[in-house]
Amino acid sequence: MTLQSGSRLGPYEIVAPLGVGGMGEVFRGRDSRLGREVAIKILPEGVSSNPDRLRRFEQEAHSASALNHPNIITIYDIGSVDSRSYIAMEFVDGKTFREILHTGGIVARKAVQIAAQLAEGLAKAHEGIVHRDLKPENIMVTKDGYVKILDFGLAKLFQPAGDQVSALPTSAQTDAGLVLGTVGYMSPEQASGTDIDFRSDHFSFGAILYEMTTGKRAFQKTTAVETMAAIIREDPETLAAAGLHVPPPVKWIIERCLEKNAADRYASTKDLARDLQSIRDHFSEIVSSSDTAAAVPAPSIGKRRKLRRLFDVTAIALILALASALIYYVLRPSKTVVGTALGYYRMTYRRGPIGSARFTPDGQTIVYSASFSGGGRELYQTRPDRAESRSLGIENAEIASISRTGEMLILMPGDKRILSQVPLTGGLPRELAEQIYGADWSPDASTMAISRWANDLSYLEFPPGKILYESAKRIDPIRVSAAGNAVAFVEHGAGASNGVVVVIDNNGKKITQSKELYPVGISWGPQDKEVWFTTIANEPGGGHELYGLDLSGAARLIQRFPGGTKLLDVASDGRALIGFTDVRTILMFHAQDQEERELSWLDNTEVVDFSPDGKKILMWERGEGSESPSGTIFLRGVDGSPAVRLAGGAPESFSPDGKWVLAGVGAQKIILVPTGAGNARSFEYPEYSDVFTIAAMPDGKNVLAMGLKNKAETVLLMQNIDGGKPGFIATKGLRATPFSAISRDGEFLLMQNSEGKSFSFALATQAVTPIPELEPDEIPFQWTGDGSNVLVLNRFVLPSKVFKVNISTGERQLFREVRPPDLTGVTSIRSILFFRDETSFAYSYQRQLSTLYLVENLR
CB within 8 A of 482, min separation 6: which ones? Predict the structure, then answer.
């Protein structure tokens, strides 16, 4: 019996009826305890004794009450009064989709806005519940424009086993106790009574989105039986045939959701929601370029289904292979063929650096990290058949590996180098370990290989805890073979750019090793026959080269590329992901009361030191324009006069009188180069490895360098410029900072431990004093004149703020802000130096503008 207005049901006052459905009557009510309006759903008295009806009614309450999302109706209470079971829920002041659709189709922008909210709510529900009756009557839009999903009365918690529909509806309404779905919006699997999961809701979602954009139903025949047959066998009228111009990405989403085979719909509702969010956030750009996008259409539902059926016909395998190849090439957004050998397929179009990229298990989807348009680093996903990329919502991360089960390993750059795991389908990253440089899943996804830094050593572990290899040098990246029986990695030199490619087996036995090169990307080639890697060409302007290193140790040149090139991943069929990057390091000079002046010379100009009079800058060119991998030494006046080449090498500092420059060449040699007339002097250290220079000492008679003794112990070398054997100073496990700063009196050196903490190191006594109150990733780069303070900055936060920090008290004050003129593509401050007067300074920043390509036919 229907409740009357003014009557009470427990703590609720009945205000007015709202509607009647298969699951009961709905009333508008008022909670007298909290003074809020509610909607009350009541199970009809005539069937309240039916155990199945009561079970389903209670299931609705329990299922929906477990959800907490702004796009899902909130359940407040469940109870029973006088044999009447009820649910009290949030009262939504608005209209159902059905009421809105009665006015006809919705404009595309509004449809996308509504659909994005609906998908977000559905994604939350799909963490444990399938709605099973998604239709316009069960969706409302409030007066404020918020979407609310109603009526989880047909929802069912996920079960490991199949969940079959035992009865089908015979009308457009949901018959209580009989139906699990509504004709016109149910999925083919619902209509045919087969197993369903969350992808069934995707089909219903697609039918609703179709109706929103066209103003008519996707499937509507004369009878319910005919409608169900159409759902199982027929495609809806195409949007083009309906005379509508719908943005291609929206059309593709509708078509994907309305696929007959659930496996061809979205693998995750979060992916569906992210695609719609991306379209919503870039709608104006999409509409303005829709004509261009339409030139590369996704195949229709019917065409895709026909092609899949062809794959089952083995008698025409050859024809199918040719057809598949044709479709593959047609779907590519842009293609450039070099000669007849290589095919390049552009995957990214926005400006900024790309860090890492991996194929997903399907071999087509690609996940990569990038920082676009001066923004922060994010993970993105794209495919060869789409021009756009969408953000995965994971910031400040590099993709390290993706398992065959769709689990990602991501690395958070910074002083802790945190390794986390997160599903490809979305979710919060779960932290696994710190101080990790590289990681890769095993082929069966049961474990992983990691490289970590601890106790001044790098360790390669596979699985974690089983040490296969250790080194005093950084190990990164690492890649496990497809067979899982070997691990390839780069063992870097002290200069970080140089290194060797190493392959070991599962017992730590070295299988092979490359010669000393400059590897910048590594992956196993097809069939585990070779390890592929890119390296800087060992000649001026030589660009980068791709090599294959076989297990016997032989290396062959696969391809030579102009400019910056990094191998990121290789698929099992030999397709490669390669990042092509225009990398420039730009040097800026700032003098008080003057505009900053660019003093870059070639393509990679780093400031190293000021001459004693402040009129010249010592510069290191280390890019394509340099004469060797060690770089080239230049001098240039701060007035912008042309640069003067001094020698090949990596410079470190002027002598106190400015007459010569200290520099390093290779891994075991340092040189003193005159700035005027004269001959260079050199010192070699065959008993040490990875020697690099630090500073010319203030006395003008000695120079300081650092190297490895017995390939493991870090020591400082004090070399008299007149010759003789160097003295060495034990460093107590510390190493020089990236800026290798020494105090003006030559008594203290800035150093770091393996955890990245900074210290003042006394050269005479080896006393170590921590530098207090530094923020994560802050690095001290220079001493002030009196030696009581150091200048520090975080090189990776832009614009960068330089602070003056007292080494005794930790007191800090803002000293200067460093702001490159254009932040697009800027990744870091590479080097920075203040002149003695602390008003003039120079800094170099790195800018990377990358494009990700899929490259075919590499052999």
Answer: 443, 524, 527, 528, 572
The number of helices, as runs of H, and strands, as runs of E, in the chain is: 12, 58
Say if residues 528 and 482 touch (Cβ distance below 8 Å). Answer: yes
SS (H, E, C) 774-830: CCCCEEEEEECCCCCEEEEEECCCCCEEEEEEECCCCCEEEEEEECCCCCCCEEEEE
Which residues have CB under 8 Å from 526's CB, separation 6+?
570, 572, 573, 574
Contact indicator for 415, 777 with CB cutoff of 8 Å? yes
Distance, CA of 264 to CA of 271 (rounded, Å): 13
String of DSSP letters for 660-675:
EEEEEETTTEEEEEES
pLDDT given at position 668? 83
For residue 365, count other CB atoms closer than 10 A to its CB.
19
Please, are residues 491 and 507 in contact by the beta-carbon 8 Å criterion? no
Token match 């062809």: residue? 310
Query: Three-state secondary structure along 3-47?
Result: CCCCCEECCEEEEEEEEEECCEEEEEEEECCCCEEEEEEECCHHH
390/261 Cα distance (integer angstroms): 25
Catalytic residue among 31, 77, 133, 777: 133
Distance CA 227, CA 219 (A): 6
What are the C-alpha distances in Å from 226 to residues 218, 258, 550, 608? 13, 18, 62, 79
Rg (CA), the chain: 33
Written as six digits, the tokens of 770 are 């921590």
Contacts for 488 with CB less than 8 Å, ≥ 6 apart = 478, 479, 481, 501, 502, 503, 522, 524, 531
**Tokens 């996903």 label which residue?**
381
Partnered with residue 522 across adjacent β-strands are: 533
- For the chain, list residues with pLDDT below 70: 1-2, 21-23, 44-54, 56-66, 103-105, 107, 152-182, 239-245, 283-341, 415, 494-496, 538-542, 629, 711-712, 737-738, 740
What DSSP string runs through 572-585? TTS-EEEEEEEEEE
Burial 513-544 (b: 16+ CB within 10 A, else e): ebeebbbbbbbbbbebebbbbbbbbeeeeeeb
Q: How many Å apart are CA 284 and CA 269, to the nearest integer?
A: 24
Q: What phi and psi, each to the nearest 5 degrees, are found at residue 205?
A: -60, -45
Whether residue 642 contacts residue 655, with contact meaning beta carbons closer than 8 Å, is answered with no
Cα dihedral 747, 752, 753, 755 in deg (nearest 10): 160
Distances (CA, A) of 202 to 135, 209, 265: 11, 10, 7
- As a whole number of angstroms, the longest Cα–Cα distance in the chain is 109
Beta carbons within 8 Å of 849's beta carbon, 6+ residues apart: 351, 352, 353, 581, 582, 824, 825
pTM of the model: 0.53
Rounded Cα–Cα distance for residues 141 and 466 (Å): 56
* Residues 284, 41: Cα–Cα separation, whole Å: 42
pLDDT tens per residue, range 158-186? 333 333 333 333 333 333 333 345 688 89
Please name the residue that has the structure tokens 């309305």. Answer: 258
* Degrees to nearest 5, angle at CA 25 with 209 and 12: 115
* Helix H or strand E segment including 242: none
pLDDT given at position 241: 59
Buried b (16+ CB within 10 A) or exposed e, 793-832: bbbeebebbbbbbbbeeeebeebbebbbeebbbbbbbbbb
Strand order in the sheet with 84-90: 8-9, 12-21, 24-31, 36-42, 84-90, 75-81
368's tokens: 């990569």
Active site residue 613: no
Neighbours of 50 (CB within 10 A): 15
468: nearest Cα among 448, 483, 482: 448
Rounded to 5°, angle at Cα 79 from 77 and 85: 120
Give the Cα separation of 549 and 791 in Å (integer).
44
